[in-house]
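Run log, item B.
One chain of 244 residues. Sequence copied directly from the ordering sheet:
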Amino acid sequence: MNTIITKLRKFYLAGMAKTVELRLSQAQEQNMSHQELLELLLEDEKVNREDNRRIRLHQGAKLPFVKHLSDFDFTFQPSIKKGYIIDLTTNAYIPRAENILFIGPPGVGKSHLSVSLGLKALAMGYTVLFTTVWDMITNLQQSRANYTYKQKVETYVKPDLLILDELGYRTMAETTVEDFFTIISKRYEKKPTIITSNRDISTWDKIFFDKTLTGAIIDRLLHHCHTFVITGESYRFQNRQKNT
């Protein structure tokens, strides 16, 4: 049996290797045919590979926390129409390459909503990557020094869904604006991007400074886009008041 398990693992059939001993005993007890046994082992392999892929997808997404839409209090944020958000959980916006913007002050649930949609995408087998805007820009800038810029750009272009958190907390220099534009431009009409921002779109020229690139970025983001402006109070502020 050890020899069989070793060979199964060597041929990358780890799912079968995990269950072959159990399945052989089951086959003897239930007087299974060879075909029935083989079907069971193949199903075990399929399930194992699906589980492993699911794990890899979640690890690769780099979500900062796990919060589902069911955890979101829409009664506390009446400016968000729940039905519109529920429609997005079908993931129909992903193949249509439709962007999503969550705009509002800190603490109103922008990141929560973006992560919830990321989890829905993962559940359907889409690749997802979550990052703050500043972390992405920093990584792109550093990659110029070791000549890996093209590979790093591909890191942010490749995922089926890219979530960029915290746009607007820092302003961008000329080269960093160009980096941001590169990612948005390469994903335009190909793959969707979710962006959270604490600044209204009308003030984004204060983030990017370059008016030409600001216009180009906004044009590409809003061309196919679902925009949500959240005007409610901060969850964190409410919780602090409850605890005092």
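Observations after the first pass:
- The first helix runs from residue 2 to 10.
- The radius of gyration is 23 Å.
Flagged for discussion on Thursday.
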